[in-house]
Amino acid sequence: MRWGLGAASVGSRKHSLPLKTHLNVEGAYGHAVEVSSGKDTPSGHWEICGLPVPFEWGTFPEQENCFPAQLMQDLLSQGNIEGTLANKHSSGTEVLVEFGEEHLRTGFPICYTSADSVFQIAAHEESFGLERLYALCEVAKKLVDPLNVTRVIARPFKGTCGANFERTANRRDLTTPPVGPTLLDHIQDQQDYNKTLYTLFAVPPWLTGKMYQNLNQFFQLRPFEWLFFLWSLKNIFLINGFDGFSPLMIILINEHIGRGKILLQIYLNVFQIFSFIITAK
Which of 84, 145, 229, 268 is 20 to 30 Å from 157 by CA-CA measure? Predict the structure, then answer.
């Protein structure tokens, strides 16, 4: 707490913590402040990646028949369907209980929304068809874009009656893409820049191909992996042997053939590089 963590938490929470904090803070501290207008999922994701959303997304009024009549008419004609159900604010589970059996009888998709900027379509995965639902959502996304609605979500479900309807894992979100560069774009730009530098400065053959990919992984290690890795390097030079493999073998055992295998390959690559440097000297 003396480094400012408690004070930063109080500033972020806007009220005191349920524990004592140091009055004499010895470190500099700060906390992030949300600046986006909306509280929906895409706004949060964009801001986390450095792209705040200073505007409000479009939403639908909380009333029966909440969707504009022209929107629903266009959805019928362009989506090749004969009708829709719900047209209201509802939770995903409640709307299935209320309209699921009628959907099975009529084949009409269930269209609903929430307080977020979203247009959701639920349909039975087998009787209506999963690909047909996805195609209908593609149509709906084009129709709600002029309304500044950020997402259309396909909500497939299965079951035979209200008592056993359940949503499946085949949900699909159609989301408005970011309106500007995000942290991910900057990372990609930096990776492209690094690759250009490697090309311009004629990287030696032993640092190309698979080894290049593994060294990129090297800079993405998690903190405990860094600790094991540095300990391993110490063992290489101070013990003059391969005792340093033991911590990486622990990772390999714990994480099986995935990330542990990559770390072991990184270890071998860096050992090869240092051996090359020492031999050259």
Answer: 145
